[in-house]
């Protein structure tokens, strides 16, 4: 037989196997893998191997032996978890956009680059999306608001840039929104009015702007559920939340508004019995500390109001507070 034919046979055989036996999810993973050009541990290179998987594909469409891949009972891929592997390369998210059963995509703690494409909005089963601590860049596409099942969204520690899209009121299952350490902007009041049922909001170290002194009706959906809110190192200006608004934040435990340009007097925190950490350092706040500013029922453990023009009798602060 011609040596050239002998050389080509493995490739012809693999191609036929791919068409006949590999599921569409598996083919998507193989296309996704092409974007990974740095794999210092070798774990993806060695396990995401269709040849090694071989004939098992004929009886099980799920590549269960591939690192970080999980499937449901039908064999559809439901999770890709490749966190903390120091992987690198420019990923093409369009290659996995057709994986309609995917619920978890976790790529945190790598060196990936690339853009989020609008096709990400087609992955409507996605519940957990964590791209944190990578080098992704470009705008966050508006189609992300189509991920109606999303519970956890973490894009922190990347180079995402531009206005954060409107329409996130569609994400009524969302509990965690973490956008810190990017170059994103938007009116914080408009964003707050869209958030529903969120418990953790971190917009710190971006370019979000706007006034916190807004009608309490715009805050009610967020205020009823949020426990952690960090808006530090942005460009917020204008007045602090009103007394009426503060009374809505019954479950809030951490509030960090430091390093902005907020002005005016502090509202009363007496109704916030769960508040443990409060920072409003390095703003333009002023005025005295009144006797009822913090009330008697708080569990405040950390307080930082430094770098403002606030005056008053500091010994009036609760004794349990480490001011």
TrEMBL record:
So which residues are the signal peptide here? Answer: 1-20
Q: Pfam families, per this entry?
A: LRR_1, LRR_6, LRR_8, LRRNT_2
Domain Leucine-rich repeat-containing N-terminal plant-type as annotated: residue spans = 23-72
Which keywords, in A-to-Z order, does the entry hold?
Kinase, Leucine-rich repeat, Receptor, Repeat, Signal, Transferase
Keyword Lipoprotein attached: no
A molecular function GO annotation? kinase activity
Say which domain of life the source belongs to: Eukaryota
Protein's name in the database? Inactive receptor kinase
Species of the source: Platanthera guangdongensis
